[in-house]
Serine/Threonine protein kinase, catalytic domain
Amino acid sequence: MRAGSLKQQISCGSLPSPLQTCIQLADAVEYLHANGIVHGDIKPDNVLMTDDGRVQLADFGSAISALTTTLDFTQTKSPNFTMRFAAPEILNQKEGNYTFTEASDVYALGMVGIGAYTYEN
């Protein structure tokens, strides 16, 4: 996408409408949750912006069914999510076994929204 990621737009200070961006992102997260999917790694890098200002959520490498919300990273000991946007309850879990929920996606959405309004990644 020529417009790049939300992270790029925030870094350049070129985000035209933080409110509309956050509304569109919230709609995307709501759609995922309504279809039983937890994203697990919502962050500005994973939000792509189209040339006409539409938001597209990307990188579903951590996405899981809401029916099975535990990701087991015990073999690599390396979490497949971004700590900065992780909900406190995720960070307080035993290393190597992280349980994601719709609530943890909503927390990450809020963190992204704060970044959009303050122009901080």
Notes: The chain has one domain: 6-118. Residues 29 and 105 are 8 Å apart (CA to CA). The two ends are 19 Å apart (CA to CA). The mean pLDDT is 80.
